[in-house]
Structure formats: C-alpha cells, structure tokens
C-alpha cells in the first residue's frame, strides 16, 4: 500500500467515525494477520541473510573498545 492510499484510508475512516477518531481497537481477520506476518518474516529473513557492511563492523569494534576502556576505570 502506498502512503497516499494509506492516508486516504485514514481520512475515510475518520470521516465515517462519528467521533472523528480512529477506532482504539482496530481488528484484522486472522487471514490478514497471517498474510502480514508472512510478508514481514520474508522481508526480515532476506535482510538477515545480507552481510554486515565493513563500516558497521568497524563502528561496532570502536564501541567495544570504548566500552572496555570505560569499564576498566
């Protein structure tokens, strides 16, 4: 869903609600919940398979060194 569609749906929900607020307890059917969960798992599984960039490893090493310096004082 694009941002524009999401914003449009939110406006429609606001317009249809008598109090002008979104429902405090939105509910999704179990099929929708499962689909969203499956898609999130697939997306994050793919992300976890990618290697950590060298720059991030260097930053983590620097943090570890700084943490050891601070802990030994």
Mean pLDDT: 77
* Number of distinct beta strands: 0
Task: Determine the strand fraction and express it as a percent band.
Answer: under 5%
Largest sheet: none
Description:
The chain is 71% helix and 0% strand. It is mainly alpha-helical and 73 residues long. The longest helix is centred in the middle third of the chain and has 20 residues, at 30-49. It is elongated and about 50 Å long.
Please summarize what this structure is.
The protein is mostly helical. The protein has three helices and no strands.
Please outline the helices and strands.
Elements: H1 3-16, H2 30-49, H3 54-71
Key structural traits:
71% helix, 73 residues, 3 helices, mainly alpha, elongated
């Amino acid at each position: 869903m694009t941002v524009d569609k999401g914003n449009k749906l939110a406006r429609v929900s606001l317009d249809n609600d008598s109090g002008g607020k979104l429902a405090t307890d939105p509910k999704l059917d179990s099929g929708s919940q499962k689909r969203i969960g499956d898609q999130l798992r697939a997306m994050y599984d793919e992300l976890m398979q990618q290697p950590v960039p060298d720059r991030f490893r260097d930053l983590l090493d620097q943090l570890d060194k700084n943490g050891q310096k601070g802990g030994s004082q």
